[in-house]
């Protein structure tokens, strides 16, 4: 194969696309949820699957684990499914009992995205998926209009995302993006992998995994050694479900968190330019717990809709856009 290619195909009945690189790398995307289903890369011992996504249509239908979820117009949890914005209170689960309230990861995990465009040439393969279904009346407690475009671009050794959130309504809206990829650099246990997160602070949460109020949420990693992965550390038996802020950029303006399997010599890098990095070792997954690590780039904090310190980050004026860039890169491997 002399250049990049894009094919349309099906994944157990779901419309999907396959991006192929000249070196044999293959990325499969479902239009449902703009969900990455597979990232297969070549190595000395054959193809290796980097993505811990859904294994079949039944698994995909369950959406358990929110594997590779595009999270919009909010990422992660909102406390009791209520929030205040612009002086008004909104309820995203009206009539639901207090002890059963739980909402997370936005509205588009199960949405069917339109295929807006594809491009394949000698340098890259690019797919643009679009969802315009976030409208007043479509989702309880969110009377705003957001057009969402997600661009996936496969280049040598990398898959990048560019996300465009456009407020097409007549008033400001709360809106931010996150992505939920589960990654496995090798076939050895998670415990033996090395995690690196370049951040100055960790996010302390309560029992519901909601950040503590105000400044109490932010803890310098010098004072929280069990959550400090700045220099790279073996995960071991630690259960990680933690956010990081004060992200430290490199000379190219990127924040690069890394996951390395010493046995295979392969490293996966999750990059972002800003926001929050959340790491999760998958201990509570109903299928195959602790066989991958979720490395989640997020534009803002969990429960950001209810945090005064996040108002500027999440406020999207009428007619304005939030554009967020993130992605994955991989190297090494037997």
List the topology elements.
Elements: E1 5-11, E2 14-20, E3 26-30, E4 35-43, E5 46-49, H1 57-62, E6 69-71, E7 82-85, E8 88-91, E9 114-120, E10 125-134, E11 146-155, E12 158-167, E13 173-174, E14 178-180, E15 182-183, E16 194-196, E17 199-203, E18 218-220, E19 233-234, E20 241-247, E21 255-261, E22 266-272, E23 276-280, E24 293-298, H2 311-314, E25 315-316, E26 321-331
Antiparallel strand pairs: 1-2, 2-3, 3-4, 4-5, 6-14, 7-8, 9-10, 10-11, 11-12, 12-26, 13-25, 15-24, 16-19, 16-21, 17-18, 17-20, 20-23, 21-22, 22-26, 23-24
Structure summarized in a few sentences:
The protein is an all-beta fold.
What would you say this structure looks like, in words?
The chain is an all-beta fold. It has a single domain (5-331), classed as Distorted Sandwich (Beta-galactosidase, Chain A, domain 5). 3% of the residues lie in helices and 43% in strands. It contains 2 helices and 26 strands. A 9-stranded antiparallel beta sheet has the order 9-10-11-12-26-22-21-16-19, with no helix packed on it. The protein has a 6-stranded antiparallel beta sheet with strand order 15-24-23-20-17-18, with no helix packed on it. The protein has a 5-stranded antiparallel beta sheet with strand order 1-2-3-4-5, with no helix packed on it. A hairpin with a 5-residue loop joins strand 2 and strand 3. The protein is globular.
């Amino acid at each position: 194969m002399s250049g990049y290619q894009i094919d349309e195909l099906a994944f157990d009945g779901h419309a999907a696309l396959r991006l192929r690189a000249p070196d044999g790398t293959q990325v499969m995307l479902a239009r449902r949820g703009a969900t990455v289903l597979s990232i297969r890369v070549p190595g000395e011992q054959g193809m290796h699957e980097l993505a811990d996504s859904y294994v079949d249509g039944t698994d995909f239908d369950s959406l358990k684990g929110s594997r590779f979820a595009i999270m919009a117009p909010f990422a992660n949890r909102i406390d009791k499914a209520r929030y205040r914005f612009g002086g008004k209170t909104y309820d995203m689960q009206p009539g639901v009992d207090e002890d059963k309230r739980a909402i997370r990861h936005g509205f588009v995990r199960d949405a069917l995205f339109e295929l807006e465009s594809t491009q394949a040439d000698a340098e890259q393969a690019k797919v643009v998926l679009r969802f315009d279904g976030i409208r007043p009346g479509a989702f309880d407690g969110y009377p705003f209009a957001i057009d969402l475009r997600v661009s996936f671009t496969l280049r040598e050794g990398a898959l990048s995302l560019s996300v465009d959130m456009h407020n097409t309504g007549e008033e400001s809206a709360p809106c931010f993006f996150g992505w939920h990829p589960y990654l496995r650099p090798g076939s050895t246990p998670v415990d033996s992998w090395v995690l690196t997160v370049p951040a100055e602070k960790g996010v302390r949460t309560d029992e519901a995994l909601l950040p503590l109020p105000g400044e109490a949420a932010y803890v310098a990693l010098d004072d929280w050694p069990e959550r400090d992965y700045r220099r790279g550390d073996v995960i071991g038996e630690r259960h990680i479900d933690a956010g990081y802020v004060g992200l430290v950029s490199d000379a190219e303006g990127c924040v690069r968190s890394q996951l390395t399997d010493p046995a295979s010599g392969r490293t996966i890098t999750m990059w972002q330019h800003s926001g929050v990095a959340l790491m999760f070792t998958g201990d509570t997954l109903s299928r195959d717990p602790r066989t991958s690590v979720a490395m989640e780039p997020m534009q803002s904090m969990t429960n950001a809709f209810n945090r005064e310190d996040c108002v500027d980050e999440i406020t999207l004026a009428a007619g304005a856009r939030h554009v967020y860039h993130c992605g994955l890169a991989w190297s090494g491997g037997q």
